[in-house]
Structures are given as C-alpha cells and as structure tokens.
Amino acid sequence: MNAQISMEMMRKNKPQLQREREALDKGVSRTRKSNQRAIQNQSETTTQTGRIALAGAILPLQVALDSWLSPKSTAKYGGKYKEYFRLLDSTLCACVIARAVVDGISRERKTTATAGAIGRAIQQEYQLQQFKINHKELFTASLTELKTEANYMKERKLVANLRKVGIMSKQWATEDLIQIGMISLLLMQKYTGLIKIYEKLENGKRISMVAPTEQMVTWLSESYEKTALNSFVYEPMIEPPLDWKDNFTGGYLLSQFQSRGLFHNARHKHDDTEYDDCPAVFDAVNHLQSTAWRINTKVYDIASKLWEHGEEVAGLPSRDYYPEPDASAYKENIKEYYLEVQRIRYKNNTNVGKRYRVNETLKLAEKFYSEPKFWYPFHLDFRGRAYPFVKTLSPQGSDLAKGLLMFAEGKPILNKEQETFFYVHGANLFGVQGSIENKLQWVKDNESWFMNTGNDARYYLWQQADKPFQFLAWVFDYVGYKTNGKKHLSHIPIAMDGSCNGIQIMSLLLLDEDTAHKTNCTPSDSPQDLYQQIADEVNTKLKANPDETNL
Fold this sequence. Notes:
Layout: H1 7-12, H2 14-40, H3 48-69, H4 82-85, H5 90-102, E1 109-110, H6 111-134, H7 136-145, H8 151-164, H9 174-192, E2 195-202, E3 205-212, H10 214-229, E4 242-246, E5 249-251, H11 255-258, H12 279-289, E6 293-295, H13 297-308, H14 334-367, E7 378-380, E8 386-388, H15 399-404, E9 405-407, E10 411-412, H16 416-430, H17 436-445, H18 447-455, H19 468-484, E11 489-490, H20 501-510, H21 513-518, H22 530-544
Helix pairs in contact: 2-10, 3-5, 3-9, 5-6, 6-7, 6-9, 7-14, 13-14, 16-17, 16-19, 18-19
C-alpha cells in the first residue's frame, strides 16, 4: 500500500480499494493463463518474457554464426551444411534459430524434434525470402490477408497456403533439416547459455534432450511471475483519483497501479519530478481526472441489444465468421475466386480485434451502468499529451466508447452561443461539411427525424452518421433540449479539435496572421483546411507542368 494513503483515506475509499484489488487479481490471473498457454503451445516469444530472452540470444548467436561461417574458421563440424546457413543473412538466421528455440524453452524437449523444428524454420524463412523476391505483389497480398495474425502464425499459414497451390518450393530432406537444427542447437548451447543438451534414460534407452539451464529456469520463473504481477486491468474509479504530487504518487490508490507513473519515463528521467517542478502540468492533469462521468444508459441499452442480436450496423462488426465462397461457383474465373477468398479471410481476421474491443467496451459499461459518478486517472505520453489509463471505455476511445459516456454533471443551454456550439457539434458528428450556417441550417431542416429518433431509436437514420453512437447520444440530448428548453441539463461533451497543431503553434510564435487564418486560429465563417489547400496547389502545378519534378 502506498505510504501516502492514510488510514482515514483507506477507510473512506474502501469500495475503490476493493475494486482495484479485484482488477489487480484479474490482470495477474489473465496474464498467468496467457503465459501458460504460450508455454504449452510452444509460442513463448509472444510473451514479454520470451521476447526478452529472444533479444538476449540473437547477438551472441549472430557472432557465433559469423565466426563459424568465416573462411578462416578452423571448426571441423558441420562443414557440408554451411551452405544452408549462408542462404540467409547471419542476423536473420540468428533470429530464426533463437525464436525456434525460445518458443519452447520452458519445456524439456527431445533434441531430434527440436532440431527438426529449427531446420524447418530456416528452410521456411529462406523460401519466404525467395518468394518475396520472385512474387512481390502476391507476397504483399498474402501478408495483407493475414495481417492480424502474430508474425510466426503469419509465416506458417502463408507457407501452408502457398504449398497448397504449388507456389512454394519443395521441402529439404528430413536428414538435412535435423542436421541443420543440431548445429544450431550446439551453437545456442555454447554461445548463449540459455539451453543445455543432455541424455536421459527413457524405457531403457538413452534419449538426447534439450532443456533450459538451471540459471535460465530460475530467470524464466521469476520473469513470468514479475510480468504477471505487473499486469493490470485498468478501470474507471468510483472515487476521485488522487491528485498527482510527483511521478509516482497520484491517480489510483494502490501503489501497483501507480508504478507506470504520470510521465512517459524513458531512461527514468522523471523519477524525481515533483509538483513544484511544473505545477501547470500537474494542475492540468489533476483537473482532467477530477471530471466525473457516467454511463449514457439510453445509448448502452440500444448498443447492447444491437450487439446481442448480431446487427452489423453503426460500425459494429459481425459476431460470426463469414463463410468462404464455394470454388465450384467460380469455375469460369478461378482468379476471382482467390480474390474473394482473400477478401473474406481479411475481413474475418480484422473482425477478431473489433469484436474484442466492442465486447470489452460493453462489458465495462455494464459494470458501471448504475454508478452515478466515476472518474478516469490520466497520464502523459512522451509528447505531453494526456490519456486516461483505461483503454476501452474511455473519453478518448472509439465512437461506441464515447457515445456510451456522458458528463455526470449537466449544464443548461442558456444562450445563443451555447446553442450554436451544441447544434454544430451534432452536425459534425453526422458528417455535415461547410460553414457554421450550413450546419445550423441542416439541424433545423432535420429536426423532425431527430425527434422521431429520440422517441424511438429504432428509427434507423442515426446509423448513417459518421460517428453513429456519439450522434445518437447527441440526438437524445437534442430532444431533451427541444422539449424542456433552459430547464434541460445537457451532459454531452462538445468536441473541439485543433487543426495542424504544429503549424498553429508556429503561426502564433511568428505572429503570422495568414498562417493563423489557414489553421483556424482566427475567426472564419467556414473551417479552413490547410492540408487540402496544399493538395490543391500541388494539383494545380502538376496540371500546368505534368513533367516537372521540382514543385
């Protein structure tokens, strides 16, 4: 427990402490299960511990390969197999070998089986490199299809798919694969210290085995446990976050959640940063996280029903995999069949991540559905931009996440200026372009279906908005305002964004009125778009001088 938290605060914030402990236990349990699955599936390089071990093995293995493959090398073993290792750059070859070993490093394995896996990995990498050279466009298209897979799964699936259609070259002889792998294991054992090769009796026979060294076993155990204990499930707080006083005191109550710190802390340069060093920054972040939120229950009720019923509307992905086409229907155009297969597989792969994010967002919204108020602790990235620790249901999250959130404290719309900002915000969410007058007129012209939607959200036009769930939340607020006038309390966050932030700052520093106007730093009837102005200027010059290279 953080020493800054008094006994009185512990008593007062007992429900919040309980939630943080539950979130901590949840994160530790989830990471332990994930690590165990990776160990069982021999894919340990997908874990944080595995990646550290992999990074530490590559350089010494590369040095060993360069020495062994050098013409000046006096090493006698494996001479006839050096040609296989020379097919790849030594750094790439070291990466392939190290990954094949580290992927199953926590488990005792038979040497022959491990050697075979290493040999196949080297062969596979060589074939992929040749395929990339000889069929560049098809290689790019194939990887695009599998882009959501982990790297090692990409390669395995790509090789399998290409062998089916006869593009990939034939496999090397099994004996050669094993010998290539055996040489790799000997180099790994000698130069990295990660593994040992030994013999044990099994059913009266001596079997050669590969296992991590004693030091490696200890390190793996400690590293896996450390990464598990540092795996947090960040959730909103039901009590106001602690004000940041230094880099590690603030936000959540439990010290484990504070270990990340307020600042992006590369090379520990902010370890000693305190409030007095930059009070304006601390005050800004503390103000942000003192803002209370709550769930927009009307939006949640609609979104959860749409998701439960599997509706693919308003940006929600399919909850099921799309079936691949029947090849018999494409007998006259087999190329079109393969393009359609790629399209369906790509869509299925990308939907996996989308489904996860939607599901996690709705689950967290359900958990906080009845909370009258909750808060978000914030931290700063390396640029100084503020972000909440929570990544799914967040004020800076997806359209769904933003639509599910509203300010806990409402404010009335009392004057024309406030009404204008409110209306323009709604038009922006739908995707209306042009001047402020155009947007205000659009709101006026469409009032009838706004009112229909507010009274019955099954009225589908809201789903056509650029940001449908945020627009739906705005419509509900709009109906309340039109019905109750100044008595209505608006809880909608009105979004305001900078444009070309870097150039905006330059225009202010240089007192350049022209650039300030083009980046919306001065009043204007219509929003200015500097990027589009530059694009139009380039197009004009290209049309005038299509062969000119220096524009």
